[in-house]
Amino acid sequence: MRLRDRQTGVIKPTALWLPLVLLLVACVGGASPSDALIAVPTQSPPPALQLGPQACPLALLEGTLVRHDEAGMAVQGDPAFPPTIVVWPHGWAARDAGDVRELLDEHGQVVGREGDRFSAGGGSFPPNDWFHPCGPIELLPGT
After folding, report:
1. How many of the other CB atoms lie within 10 Å of CB of 83?
2. Number of alpha carbons in the 13 Å side-chain half-sphere of residue 109
3. Most CB atoms within 10 A, among 109, 119, 127, 141?
4. pLDDT per residue over 20-46, tens digit each?
5. Which option is the CATH number for 37-46+56-140: 2.40.50, 3.30.160, 3.30.450, 2.40.128?
6. Can you say how many angstroms the Cα of residue 126 is from the centroid of all Cα atoms in its chain?
7. pLDDT, the chain, mean
8. Distance of CA 82 to the CA centre of its chain
9. How far apart are CA 73 and CA 116, in angstroms?
């Protein structure tokens, strides 16, 4: 593809527009609804300066990751009670991959899926009593 006409030296308008049109088509047609991120409650970013160990409540939450209409992803423990909303680590999100909701870490890597087993220490705090994990979160593939 030549950008300039040999005789006149003028840049051909079609040569300028073609890359722009191709870029727009790629942007509009490239994203599918399943690629959209779903917001989940997350913790504040960690402090820039760690001044020592932080306290961690001793409650243990165990259950199964489930899709949640308001919070994106929650943990279902005892089926007699509603799922527990979790305030995930800073930067985490969820997305729908086909008919399964996935949980993503701050790097966009899948760390869990609906049906996976969840276990973490932490605690629930007012005003909404959502569970705030601290320390490691264990996510194991569901059966």
Report:
1. 18
2. 2
3. 119
4. 444 444 444 444 445 688 889 888 887
5. 2.40.50
6. 25
7. 80
8. 22
9. 11
